[in-house]
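Page header: ASSEMBLY MODEL / two components / 528 residues total.
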Amino acid sequence: MSAAPASAVTPRKTALNAVHREMGAKMVDFNGWDMPVEYPRYGGIIAEHMGVRTGVGIFDVSHMGDIRVQGPQALAAIQHITINDAAKLALGQAQYSAMLYPQGTFVDDVIVHKLGEDDYLIVINAGTREKDFTWVRNNARGFNCQVENLSDDFTQIAIQGPRGVELLQKLTDADLSAVKFYWVTRGTVCGLKNILIARTGYTAEDGFEIYVPSDVETSARVWKQVLEAGKELGVVPCGLGARNTLRLEGKLALYGHEISDTINVWEAGLDRFCKMEKSEFIGRDALARAKTEGVTRTLVGLEMIDRGIARDGYRALDSTGGEIGYVTSGSYAPFLKKNIALAYVPVSYSAPGSEVGVEIRGQSVKAKVVPTPFYKRPKKGS
Amino acid sequence: MRRVQLRRIDSALLENDKMAYPQDFKYTKEHEWIKIQGNTGIIGITDHAQESLGDIVFVELPKPGATLTAGKSFGTVESVKAVSDLYAPVSGMVTEVNEELSKSPEKINADAHGAWMIKISLANPAESGSLLSAQDYEKFVSEEVA
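Prediction written out in full:
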C-alpha cells in the first residue's frame, strides 16, 4: 500500500477530475483529494444546494472508499467491527453504522450494505480510507472471511434530490420504485450491466448512489449521460461546498468534526445506531462504562440570534464569556436561510431555547439551541 | 479581457464575466478597490475577489466615525465557504456605510464594482500613490491565477 498522506504534494484525483475542470469547477484539496468545491457556471454553492432540495443534483463521491467483507464469518466480523446490528440486514439492505476504537471513540462512520449471503460492502470516508482498511483487515483477522479494498474500483456518483429517482430511472432498467431508502439493487445503468444502485446519500434528501467502473472513459460517459438525462429536470452538478451545507442542515456527521477519535457515540448523539444488546463489538465495554459514568458534553444544533456565522472550531461561551465548548461545523444554511451550527456543549445547555455565545473575532455573539435536524425532508404525500 | 482568454471560458459564461476593472479606481493586492473623489474614498472588493469567494452571505463593516489604518483590517466578508478580512487601502475615517449590504450581501456578487462598502475621508491622500492601477491589478490577478 502506498498510502498518500493528506499533505501529499500531488493530490489524488478521481476518474472524473478532467471532467470537473472542463466544466469550470473550482477545485480544492479535500483530505488529499483534488475535488470540485463548486461549479460557478451552474450557479455555485447556493444554487447547487437549492437544486438538490427542490430538484436534483449530482455529485462525484468517488473519493469515498469501499471495503468488501466476504466469507462464512463475514457477518461475525462485521458485528465485531461495527456498532449497528448487521444481523438485522436483509439481503439488499443497508444501514448507517460506525467503527469504534476500544475506548468507544470513532474510527469512522460507515454504511454497511448486505450484498449477498456472507457478502458485505462497507462504504467509508475519503480522509480515513487507509486507516479504515487497515482497521477492518486487522480486526477481521480472527474470522473466516476475506477483506478486500475496492476503493479504487468504483466511480461513485450520487444523484440526490426529490427528482433523483426520476432522473436515474431514465438510465436504468431496474425498478427504482421498488427500492426503499437504505436499500440497494443491481441493474443496467447507461448500458453497463450489473451496476450497484444504492438508495443512500449525504444530503438529507431522497437519492441514489451508483457504483460504476472507475476507468476514465466509462466514468466520464456515465457522468455526462446523467447530466444530459437530467437536463429537462434542471439537474445541477454539485461540489463539496453544497455537499457540506446539505449534510449540515440534515445534521449528518462529518468525520473530524462531529465525530472523531476523541468523541464517543453517546456524545455524538448516535445512540439509535448503536446496538449494545446485539453482542460484543469493539468499543462496547468503554461505551457501557461511559454510560454509567454519565455523558458530560453533547452535540447540539445552534441558530445564531445575533449577526454572525459560527465556523468550525469557534469557541462556545457561557453568559460570562467563559469557554463551555466548541463549534464542530457552522455555515449559512442556504435552504433555511439562517446561520446554523453544530457544537459540543455541556449537557446542561442542551435544551432547545438555551442561549450560548459563540466567539466570533473576539466577540461573544448570541446563539440559541434549536431542535435537530435543522432540516427534515417532507414526507411524500402519496 | 485578458483574464477571460486565460481561463478559456465558454461563450455562455463570457457574457456575465467580462467585468473590466474601472480605470478610475485604485486597487490593493488584497483585492479591495477604492475610488477617490477629492478627499473622499469609496471602498469595495474587486470582481476577482467576489468570484474567488463565491456566494457572499455576510458582511461586517465598521460604523461611521471608525478610523481606518492603511493595510489594517477594517471588516469581514464571508461566503458560504470562506471568511475573509477586508484591508484598508488607505487611512481615514468612515463617513458612510452601505447598510444595504448587511441585508443583501449577494449584491457584491452581482456587481462588485458597484456595491461599495464604506466611504471614508482620507487622512493622508498621498498614501494612494502606492496602490495599483487597473492595469497593474489585472496583471497581478492574472499572474496569481496562473
